[in-house]
Each structure stands twice: as structure tokens, then as C-alpha cells.
Amino acid sequence: MNEEELVEYFRAQMRTDPDMASAVAAIRTLLEFLKRDKGETILGLRESLTSATDCLTGVDSSVAVSSGGELFLRFISLTSLEHEDLSRCKKVMEERGELFLEKISMSRTKVAKLCHTFIKDGAKILTHSYSRVVLRVLEKAAAEKKRFSVYVTESQPDSAGRQMAEALRNLNVPVTVVLDAAVGYVLEKVDLVIVGAEGVVESGGIINKIGTYQTAVCAKAHNKPFYVVAESFKFVRLYPLNQQDVPDRFKYKADTLKTGANLSEEHPIIDYTPPSLITLLFTDLGVLTPSAVSDELIKLYL
Amino acid sequence: MPGPDRETDLTERIESFLSDLKRGGSGTGPLRGSAETARETTALLRRITAQARWSSAGDLMEIIRKEGRRMIAAQPSETTVGNMIRRVLKIVREEYARSRGSSEETDQQESLHKLLTSGGLSEENFRQHFTALKANVIEAINELLTELEGTTDNIAMQALEHIHSNEVIMTIGRSRTAEAFLKDAARKRKFHVIVAECAPFCQGHEMATSLSKAGIETTVIADAAIFAVMSRVNKVIIGTQTVLANGGLRAVNGTHTLALAAKHHSTPLIVCAPMFKLSPQILSKVNVHCPVFDYVPPELITLFISNIGGHAPSYIYRLMSELYHPEDHEL
User: Fold this and answer.
1) Where found, per UniProt (chain B) (predicted)?
2) Whole-number mean pLDDT of chain B?
């Protein structure tokens, strides 16, 4: 499977199911790559998978694709230790890969089940930009006949917040779109803040659409709980200490990076929110405090 | 005939336990203090294991859950009952796993690692019958009871490391664990204790009397004076009713005020809480109907002293995962 086929498969996955997380599409693509791979050795397989992941991050530079790829690579390493024979190994990998995909496709439902109990009747929720996980949580809360209203930030530069507002209106949830600059203004009316995450880093902080950090700081100042909902495959092995530490390859869109423009003049599309501002993280592994996240990552990677 | 007699005897005991629970909350009635409640609950669960009719681990867990739900409904504010039930359920799961010979006992939790390496969707329905299971479970429950009996002493033993001579310690209300802690330190050190009386029940008065009988210089203050006196205090040592999963507390009314005052003066706040008070609940699900209890957020707490040592509030979730199985969080 060469580069073009890879990219085409990935794009096709995203097209057929726009609700699918980009990490899941990446893992599906890599699984397909694995199935069609004609290599003879495990090492060769790892190398070709690494280059395939790099190729995919070239298409979609989000953190989630990178974390999904790393997770898949880790999965290969863990499986390959158990079997000697390559063809048997590959068969087991394919089976487990399908199983893994099945499990993570249920993760959003698990997250929604955990989180909707924290939304009380009459609650006013603030959310940022467009997140499918947050949407699923709010869907579940609305299905449980809870009455709540939502404020969504517009989230420039791509106005993703308007898409979120549209989706919420279809659920008959009262929603108001606010300017990104109006977050501080609106926080006194709000009871809780729920955001999604593109990546969850080792310290327990998150990487999400630009503007999340600002919202978190304001929420802390107003003493409002700041909840993050994320699936477990978004856990990534990064430990940024401040905004500068986040690698450039995540901060800008893939096309911007390719054109080689002067990055100091580009606007970053993500920011880092440190764990001290986050109250709780809702994942399919359970409700975690930020300090529990590093524990999970250690269990996986060590 | 031994059969029906045992059944009726068991149901009688359960009914009497339930009525005891309904009558008294913690501190009043025949069940004084949460330690006794925990012990009674565990002893009753041991009796249920021994006397009820069950053939597989799944049946036993179902029976325990059913009785457990009734016990919790009898006195919802007494969380130790629920905690002990969850401990026993975890014991049953572990013994079952051990009997089956699987090495999964250490990795009961969901984790990324498990997601990647497990061979199939785990279908644990606990239907297999093992003859030795009953004996094993009862033995494990006995170990749990021994642990429960030693908790206050274990906590008190750590007192000398934390309390130094000529210190001024503040506490609130009446906590048997904190009392034992302070009395143990008083054997070797001289220090002052200030007790906030904790209206309206004013249990602080009893605490003060008990401490002064042990030879500790004690002063009683009104709750309103907590902030004013805090500047002279070196440490705050308190007990609690429940420890929540995020490291927060559900403690007697007035504790939040105490914690905020301590934070303001940068005074360390130490909570003496035995492991059986750890509850896998997070605040939102806890219905604080009666304002007899306060919620204290984890940011205000410096250290938890439990029978297994000292821990930071951010570590509580880890202890939770060792004590309870995630599927038992919702009984």
C-alpha cells in the first residue's frame, strides 16, 4: 500500500463517517495497511508503519492522529512479543486490531454515560468550539429529560462553534453563541464548563482548540468546575511545561506546515491547558483526576 | 430442621441491623461511630456468606448486592455500609479469580494496556462453582475484620511523626480517630489543643473533656472564632465522615470554614481517616440533603493519614482502585 492509497483510504474513512474521531480513522487506515503489508520481518513492519503514520500526520496534523498512530505501534510491539512466527503474529494482530477498534468505537458512549450525571436540571453549561464527544454527552443528558442551556463560543478562525450550535438546536437544547472574547463576561451566569480534547498529555493537561486555556483560566477565577471529556486513545506521550513546549507540528494545520511559511507569523490553532486548571477528566477508563492520567500512561508504555 | 431455622435466623439479624441503622446515624443510637458500623456490616456479610444459599460466586454477589441496597437505603448518610459491601464484593471477585487460577487479579481495572492486549471481550459471569470458594471468602472477610479492628491504633501510631512539642493543634467537633491520634502523641509530647465546639450539637465539648482527662491542655472556642485564632495554630488535625474519590471530604458542618481559614494562613490540614471511609463517590452524585455535612475540596487538604500511611489527596483515586472494583461503584 503506497502513500497515495494510504492517504486516499484515510480521506475516504473520514468522508464516509464524519462522526468518527480522526484517531479512529487513522487506526483503521493503519490496520488496513497492516493487512496489505508484504513485509517479512517485524522490524520492517514497524518501520513501514512509522512512515505510514508520518504520512498520515502530513494530511491531518492534529494531536489525535499522532496519538492514535503511536498507540497502534505500541499495540504491534506488545503483540509481536508473544508469537515467534510472523504470519501467525500478523493474524493475531489483525484479530486484536479489529477487537481494539470495536472497543474504542464504544468509548464515546461510555464517556457519555459517566458524564451526564454531572449535569443537573437547570444547569447552564459553557463549551468551546465543536466537539463530538461533548455533543454526545449533551445528547445523553437531553435524552434523560434534563433541562439545561448551553453557551458555545464561536471559536475563530473556523467558526466551529456555529456548527456545534446548529447540532444542539437540532436536539432542542437552548443554545447561545458567544464571542470568544465574551467568555469572561458570560462565566458568572454559567454553572459548569465542559470541553473536549484533541489530546491528553502526560501531566494530565489537555491540548485543544485555541481559546480553551483562556476559558480554563477564567473558570478558575470564577471558581466554576472545568470538566474535560476525552476518549482514552487520545492519551499522548508529551509533557509540555508551557505553551512554547507544544511541538510546532501540532500547532498549525498540515497545509501551513507544508508551505514552509514563517511560523512566527501564523496563528496557532491549538493551545495547552495545564492540569491545575482542570477539575476532572471523563474518559472511557472512568472518571479521572488529572494526576491519574500519568498513571494510565505509565501502565501502558512501561 | 437446620435449613429454615438458619434462614429465619439470618433474616432476623438482617432486620435488626436495618432497624438499628434506621434509628441511629453515626454517633447516636446503639451503633456508635462509623468503625462499629463497619464492623457490624462486615460481620453480617460474613454471616450471609456462611448461611445463605448460593452455589456460584455470581449468586453470592447478587445476594450481597440485594441486601446491600436495603442497608444503604436504611441510612443513606452512613457511607461505611456501602464501602464495606463493595470491599466484600471485591473479595469475592478476587477469590473467584484465584480459584480459576487466572493471573488477572492485579489488573481488574480498565486501562489502555488492557485495551490493547486482551484477547477477547471479557465475559466474566462468575457462574462456575468452586467448593473451596465459601471457605476462602470467609477467611478473607476475617482478614478484613482484623484490619478493621486495628485501624484506629495504626493511625494513632503515626502521631509522633506529625506532632512536635509545644505545638498548637486545632481540631473541630468530635472524631474518635483524631482523639486517639492526639492522645497517643500526648504520651510522649507536650502540646496544646484548641477545639472548635461545632454547634449545634457541640460535640467539641465532649472532645475537650476527653482530651483534658488524658492530660492535654485544651481550649474550647466558638465556631465563629476559628479564623481569629488560626494565626496562632501550627497544624489542623481533623477526622471526617467520608473521603470522596477525588480526594475531597464530606465532614461535619464547619469543616469547610476551618479548611479555608487554614489555607488562608498556610497552615497544614491533616485528615485522619481510616481506609473504610473511602467512598467511590464524587460530589455530584452525593446528595447532601442535610446540612449536617460540609464538602471540603481536595485543594484545601495537605495530608491524609490512614491505617496504611500518609497520602496526598491526589493519590486517593489510586487507593480507591485497590479497594474497590469499578463495576461495584454503582450498587
Assistant:
1) Cytoplasm, Cytosol
2) 84
